[in-house]
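protien #1 (seq + structre)
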Amino acid sequence: MPNIAHTYYPQQGLLVVLGAGESGVGAAVLGKEKGFEVFVSDRGAIGESYRKELESEGIVFEELQHTESKILKADIVVKSPGIPEQAPLVQQLKKMGIPVISEIEFAAQYTEARLYCITGSNGKSTTTMLTYYMLKQGGVNVGLAGNIGKSFARQVARSDFDVYVLEISSFMLDDMYRFRADIAVILNITPDHLDRYNHSMEAYVASKFRIIQNQTENDYFIYCADDPETAKGLERFATKALHLPFSQQDEVAAGAYLDSNRNIVINIPNKETFTMNIEELSLQGKHNVYNNMASGLIAKAQELRNQTMKESMGSYVNIAHRLEHVACIGGVNYINDSKATNVNSVWYALESFSPDIILIMGGVDKGNDYEMLRDLVKAKVKAIVCIGKDTVRIHESFEEDTDVIVNSSSMQEAVEMASHLAKKGDTVLLSPACASFDWFRNYEERGDKFKEAVMAL
């Protein structure tokens, strides 16, 4: 059965898509296929490949503006997750009673595939990719979408998968109302994007918990029992789904936990128990034990064989820009963690490596509170090399916790400085804690420039 009743949203008429990135163009392609008149509007410039695709599909579009007279005639609007709820145009559409939904919500109407949905402040991409890899290794006809890869809508239009693993951000969840996840996962909730939520942690937690809305007793809800914000959220938000907590602190009857021999134990009612020692995992570090627990619970719910799970969890190679090993030069390891755009991600990165670390960090500060990093910086970081425009708060936060803090004027200079500060056995870690938009287009370009600079040493 489809995850949203087909008749809930208009099934014909004018579909307006706001934003012509991967999700917007995917929604436009699916809308055209389902018989809508489609109009795509982007306030910015549309990328060359997306413009060509819209032209070849015969889809009407505009860029560098929003023509309100046309947009306000919509029967339904699919909005890019980057456009905030508070935008005047969005407010106007809602006032007129025109449904404004996410691409995920729109596409879910047109598939009967099972949807395994993963959210969290940190670890989403790794857990999503690991889950996808594991299911694929197990012979499942599985697609990968959401905040990663090709858009969900495009795949619903062009492919025929039995299962989708979806990485879901809070911005996507904000525009999802009738969507139902067969398996919903909340990995953790730490302060991030609070500027989008009126600086209210409660509002951000509520957004994350939208992932469990509409779940039934036949569905699964997987979450970290050790995460304080998730624990508080459980008191506010209920679901009929079977709860499967995972924990490294306590044994759980149904779910996943770490036993006294450092084995991950996964127990789901009426399914074979799974155990694997954490030393055998390809992804090391405390945070990756959590990621493997979450992925393992999904795989076990899907009834994958224990042997397949073990082989997958032992052989998976991490995604680019997330604790990615770049090179070992002169006995110094260089690690690209450019995807670490918040403080909590940097905490996980520092926790993963032994002393001594030369930490490259900085960029566009999103109102970061660096306090949670101080103990790890004291214990593990011998020097900090700052990149980007917002360096004052990094200096203020860590001047008493590490011997050296220096500024750089480019990524190349930052890497050269770090290489001079490092000696054999050290780790040079790019883990910025900040957005990248001052020096780079995105975190991928930042990570690529880091890798180029390392290989030029």
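ok now protien #2
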Amino acid sequence: MRTVGVEEELLVVDPGGRPVPLAPEALAVAARRGEGETVEEHDRAEQAGIRPAGDGRSGPAAHLVPELKEQQIELGTRVCRELGEVAGELRHWRSRADAAATSVGARVAALATSPVPVRPVATRGERYQLMLDTFGLTAVEPLTCGCHVHVSVGDDEEGVAVLDRVRGWLPVLTALSANSPFWSGEDSGYASFRSQVWARWPSAGPTGRFGTPAAYHRVVADLLASGTVLDDGMVYFDARLSATWPTVEVRVADVALRVEDAVLLAGLVRGLVETAARDWRAGRPAPDVRTELLRVAAWRAGRSGVSADLVDPRSGRPAPAAEVVAALLDHVRPALEDSGDRELVEHGVAEVLRRGTGADLQRRAFAETGDLAAVVRAAVAATHGR
């Protein structure tokens, strides 16, 4: 069975719902408890090209680490074989991140953007400062939180075959995970405004088909040689080969408000990777989907989530979100059955379609209270299963 690991970025907020730059202090507490890295330790590791050690299969060992802004903490699960393990890991590390934040007078919330206006504060460190100097407002202005799923692959040949075959389905994952309707104190009109902000980075977004590992690595080398992408960690493709572990990393999702939705995402990504690998081994060619159409599909997914039409990857035409999500389930169902994930994933999809995404829940909280700070407080509760 393919292993899976999840990385999440969380907002650090004060009791009034405002993101606060207390992550360095919280991470210092976590480091003393053996649960994470301080900003200084992380910066030294980044400069040396060192990543947290894993078991070589599906990503890093569990940890709490800094992100680009001091109002963020990133967590990483251990390598997991069962989705139940993923759920337990996420609950544990959300709880540990919250405990560290609570010790310095804050909480953590799984929000992909801040509902209340905020002035982001950059995390100290050479690499982060270089990013700010190089990319200006693209790096200075955003405060966004995503969720990245790592799934193990046998080698780069299988990994590239997977990348070439999952491209069309990734916008559906964006729609299901949408959790960022508010920006600068206003409703953005998008279910995932994080996905719009993230698209500003020069290396972000969908990719064309690569065909071979040599072609993939040549593209990455050319991006680095351009002098625009600073290092391989800034190759922000929607899905990429991990530069550190033998995994495919899918990066299109907002951080999930509920643990259950993050587990659903992990199950769908693992199902997509396994389905793509089977198609490759069977000699079925990768779908010939234009990158331009993928950009349109990604925009549509970020705009409406699952509340309106999505672009159906089979036809390139609009279709009701529930119909497109059902097509995704049909596509990965054999893989879900073989991994034992079918019941959990089908239930998770039904729940999202019934109650809505994190974006829908945030908007309902605002409609009930008229108070964006109350939305953040409700998100803190939902982050920890309440």
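The longest helix spans residues 259-281.
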